[in-house]
Amino acid sequence: MRDKILECVPNFSEGKDSEVIEKIVEPFMRADGVKLLDYSADRDHNRLVVTLIGEPEALKGSLLDAMETAVREIDMNRHRGEHPRMGAVDVIPFIPVRNVTMEEAVDLSHRLAREAADKFNLPVYLYENAATSAGRQNLADIRRGQFEGFFEKIKLPEWNPDYGPQEMHKTAGVTAIGARMPLVAFNVNLNTDRLEIAKAIARRVRNSGGGLRYCKAIGVVLRERGMVQVSMNMTDFTKTSLYQSFEMIKMEARRYGITVAGSELVGTLPMQALTDAAAYYLGLENFCQEQILENRLLWEE
């Protein structure tokens, strides 16, 4: 049994070119000490989300290999997509899983950031638990202005990168690396093509708009499906559940005379996030995790 295990969910700004996507993912498939759990590419978001678990050093090595491919293959000057982004390797979070403290995850964030900055001449910011100041904890604050706006933003003294040069990489932009608790990427699709409605609902649902405390949300267009979406990051599903955000979006949608078309998960999530929703919708009384058959089998092994 391996001792120290972390989860890592790197996001790359490529969701259309399957050849580039396979090149980016390839290091995770061959690395010893790393297990590729999932990767999902979205054409509308033009984004690749990869989910890994592994030992700290093995993760760091495979990430540097994947970053090298992304920096070489992705030109952010030509990138267009619905998801906010600031770099070819947009964000890399580390999440402690087993026998790893948050302090160790933060240390790994610093070491990867330092090596990536040196190797690729890439500006890197540290965020969430790894942030070097309170103003850099929130990824949305770092990313504000996106790739196009960062050429001027990075020149400001308060936005000097934590590692790397104080100038944008001309094609790869900038990268954020951090350590955090588990996050659930949860999207709700709406039966309308009116983006202004999705944006209005996102403003009502997210914490910064006075909505749910542990919810970040934006409105995006799904052009290939002819509808819009409220795209969310649930930063603590134990305190703001998936069903709370789903029900709030349904309620807000009724104000505009529209309905929810469905929802989707991006990447993996803890089982509790789903069982909490199942218990709520079924009205289960005194439900506990031990009632799940698969859990009993695992615990008894």
Q: Could you name the key traits of this structure?
A:
Formiminotransferase-cyclodeaminase, Chain B, domain 1; 4-stranded antiparallel β-sheet; 2 domains; globular; 301 residues; 11 strands; alpha+beta; 9 helices; Alpha-Beta Plaits; 7-stranded mixed β-sheet
Tell me the name of the CATH homologous superfamily of the largest domain: Formiminotransferase, N-terminal subdomain
Stated plainly, the CATH topology of the largest domain is called Formiminotransferase-cyclodeaminase, Chain B, domain 1
Mean pLDDT: 93
Structural class: alpha+beta
Tell me how many strands there are.
Answer: 11
Gross CATH architecture of the largest domain: 2-Layer Sandwich
Domain tally: 2
Helix and strand run: EEHEEHEHEHHEEHEEHEHH
Based on Cα principal axes, name the global outline. Answer: globular
Total of helices? 9
What's the CATH C level of the largest domain? Alpha Beta
What value does the Rg take, in angstroms? 19 Å
Termini separation: 14 Å
The percent range for strand residues is 15-25%
Extract low-pLDDT stretches.
none
Largest sheet: 7 strands, mixed
* Approximate helicity band: 25-40%
Reconstruct the topology from this structure.
Elements: E1 5-8, E2 11-12, H1 18-30, E3 34-42, E4 47-54, H2 56-73, E5 89-98, H3 102-120, E6 124-128, H4 139-143, H5 146-153, E7 175-179, E8 184-190, H6 195-205, E9 215-222, E10 227-234, H7 242-255, E11 260-266, H8 271-282, H9 293-300
Parallel strand pairs: 5-7, 6-7
Antiparallel strand pairs: 1-4, 1-5, 2-4, 2-5, 3-4, 8-10, 8-11, 9-10
Helix pairs in contact: 1-2, 2-3, 6-7
